[in-house]
Amino acid sequence: MKPTRSTLEEPLYLDCDGQRMSDNTLQFLWIVMLQTNLDAMYRLRPDVFVAGDLLWYPARGLHRVRMAPDVMVVFGRPKGYRGSYKQWEEEDVGPQVVFEVLSPGNRTEEMDRKFEFYETHRVQEYYLYDPHGVELSGWLHQNGALEPVAAMNGWVSPRLSIRFDMSGPELVVYRPDGQRFSTFVELQQQAEDAKQRAEQLAAKLRALGVDPDA
Q1: Burial 62-77 (b: 16+ CB within 10 A, else e)
Q2: SS3 (DSSP) at 143
Q3: What's the mean pLDDT when you consider all of the chain?
Q4: 72 — phi, psi (to 5°)?
Q5: DSSP state, 149?
Q6: DSSP label of 208
Q7: Cα separation of 19 and 40, whole Å?
Q8: How far apart are CA 92 and CA 181, in angstroms?
């Protein structure tokens, strides 16, 4: 099909902004942990899309207006592959919740620019975590602006229903069912422990003459 004038004039929406996903292993660990645990939380919800470090373009024709949240959650959009999140192709539904995880290299002006972007494009909840200083901040979109959450220790996200616990030496995030967010290694260890307990129980049943598979 011969390209039309409109398609020829369509700007290029890149799938990569050339920026690194993280500057260090601690920042990377938190980005991955938040993304994977949220994705697992909503694994049975086909209408919830969770992504990490994905470029978000809020408006068609403005290819330089973009941001790649460390983690974003979009309610009302299907799961699936995306090279970038073009809001006009998503029934104009933008991410409702975003997370940023700080590294020592993040500059104040950079974070101010991100805050302004999220406020302008009406993100409902914005969370900023510094894993090195163990500091967590949160904002809710109210009255046309992102308003700060007064106290984050014990705060429960209105959209995600996850709870933030800052009472210890590092942030702990709890799912609505009370399970804590875990790293991939911790999840693997939990699976191995559960398998070992099942094998031990099966061995005991066999010793009693009971078929565990019956």
Answers
A1: eeeebbbbbbbbbbeb
A2: coil
A3: 89
A4: -140, 150
A5: P
A6: T
A7: 26
A8: 30
How distant is the alpha carbon of residue 145 from its chain centre? 22
Supply the DSSP symbol for 179. P
Burial class (CB in 10 A: 0-12, 13-18, 19+), 103: middle
Q: Pinpoint the alpha helices (H) of 96-211.
A: 108-120, 184-207
The region that residue 30 occupies, defined by phi over 0 for left and psi between -120 and 50 for alpha, beta otherwise, is alpha
Rounded CA separation 98/68 (Å): 10
DSSP secondary structure string for all residues of 27-92: HHHHHHHHHHHHHHHTTT-TTEEEEES--EE-STT-TT--B--SEEEEETS-----SSEEGGGTTT
pTM: 0.83
The total of other beta-carbon atoms located within 10 Å of residue 182's CB is 17
Cα 162 to Cα 97: distance, rounded to the nearest angstrom? 12
Give how far Cα 118 sits from Cα of 11, 45, 51, 99, 105, Å. Answer: 23, 25, 16, 11, 20
pLDDT of residue 20: 63
Query: Largest alpha-carbon pair distance within the chain?
Result: 79
Give 19-69 pLDDT, tens digit per residue.
666 678 999 999 999 999 999 999 999 999 999 999 999 999 999 999 999
What CA–CA distance (Å, rounded) separates 168 from 165? 8
